[in-house]
Amino acid sequence: MSTALTVTYLLLSPYLATTGFGAYLGMELGNGGGEFGQALKFVTRHPSVGWDVLGFAACGAVGQLFIFYTLSNFSSLLLVTVTVTRKMLTMMLSVLWFGHRLSGMQWVGVGLVFGGVGAEGVIQRREKAAKERAKRASGKKAL
User: Fold this and answer.
1) In terms of C-beta density within 10 A (0-12 exposed, 13-18 middle, 19 or more buried), how is residue 45 classed?
2) By three-state DSSP, how is residue 75 classified?
3) First to last CA, the chain
4) Chain centroid to CA 70: how far?
């Protein structure tokens, strides 16, 4: 659906720019071929960018498959936990890699995120253990 909407916009944008709706959206009249035409001209001038764009699109598609798999087989809460953890670890790696410094409040934010993820794990583990105890207790009563 996203691809269909994006392609439709890119193909119609040169025509939309000349309407009142295009003016309302802030579309420029001067770029004759629209955004799609400009992008094609850029990729034609710099062919290596086209491969980078295709690689980026392929990585995005594979990432969507992992998201779909996680939602199909696990909970959305697990997906959010994995996503937030991945983003925070990426951010921390970037800070270390490029030698940036975090302010005190930024460290508080990092602590809150990882603390929340850890607390969520502890709560889930306790709930799972309580369900198993209840299941065993109901099994003993049946005997």
Assistant:
1) exposed
2) coil
3) 54
4) 14
Q: What is the DSSP letter of 99?
A: T
pLDDT tens profile 72-119: 998 888 888 888 888 989 999 999 999 999 999 999 999 998 898 889
Give Cβ neighbours of residue 11 (< 8 Å, ≥ 6 apart): 36
pTM of the model: 0.55
- Domain boundaries of the chain, sorted by first residue: 1-45
Alpha carbon 107 to its chain centroid, in Å, reads 23
Q: What contacts 132, CB < 8 A, 6 or more positions away? A: none
The vertex-46 CA angle with 43 and 47, nearest 5°, equals 75
Q: Which of 106, 78, 112 is nearest to 91 (CA)?
A: 106
Q: Which of 38, 30, 34, 42 is nearest to 11 (CA)?
A: 34
Structure tokens at 49: 């960018």
Token pair recorded at residue 125: 């583990």
Query: CA 9 to CA 16: how far, in whole Å?
Result: 9
Closest by CA position to 9, among listed 41, 40, 35: 35
